[in-house]
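Per your request, structure below.
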């Protein structure tokens, strides 16, 4: 029995609305409500529905199989289907047009797959409708920006000073290296010349 339980989990239907389930939309704008589903064994005559506040059906679609795009059963006139199921991700996202304040609430994407013994799963998005997209306390924002800006400024200054210091140290070390190389080079040359002169003078004396 434990083995069968694990097997069932491996082939379970999963519905997702992305990394976050909260969205904000501007009044009178269009908003994309994302939704995708995953099923390991594929699907046949899959049914998907979108609900507003758990009760109001705003989109109902069917998908015959992976090779076909969804067909519309019924929809709210202000809702358009914008997904695709013949591509890699089984996208059943919708577009809500001309958003109003009354559209704020819970949107549920529900999927039922008869091929998985009518397995069902859903995911929810919480939509907020605002008059303006920026409605935060500016004082707090400015303080945060000021502090962060100051820290970034200090960090940049520190990095610049570090680079200048490292550059000066490098130049000084390079200078010393050059000096050492040139002086040792001269010594070698002089020694070489002295040696050669001594060698030339040696035979006549002998």
């Amino acid at each position: 029995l434990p083995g069968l339980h694990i097997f069932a989990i491996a082939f379970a239907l999963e519905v997702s609305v992305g990394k976050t389930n909260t969205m904000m939309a501007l009044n009178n704008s269009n908003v994309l409500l994302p939704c995708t589903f995953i099923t390991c064994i594929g699907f046949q005559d899959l049914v998907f529905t979108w609900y507003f506040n758990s009760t109001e059906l705003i989109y109902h679609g069917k998908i015959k199989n992976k090779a076909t795009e969804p067909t519309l059963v019924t929809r709210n006139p202000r809702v358009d289907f914008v997904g695709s199921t013949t591509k890699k991700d089984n996208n059943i996202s919708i577009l809500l047009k001309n958003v109003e304040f009354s559209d704020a609430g819970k949107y549920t994407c529900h999927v039922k797959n008869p091929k998985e013994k009518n397995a069902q799963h859903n995911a929810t998005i919480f939509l907020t409708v605002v008059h303006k997209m920026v409605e935060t306390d500016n004082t707090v924002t400015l303080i945060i920006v000021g502090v962060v800006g100051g820290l970034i400024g200090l960090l940049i200054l520190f990095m610049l000073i570090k680079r200048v210091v490292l550059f000066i140290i490098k130049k000084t070390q390079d200078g010393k290296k050059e000096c050492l190389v040139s002086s040792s080079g001269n010594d070698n040359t002089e020694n070489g010349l002295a040696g050669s002169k001594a060698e030339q003078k040696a035979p006549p004396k002998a």
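The CA atoms of residues 30 and 179 lie 71 Å apart.

Regards,
D.
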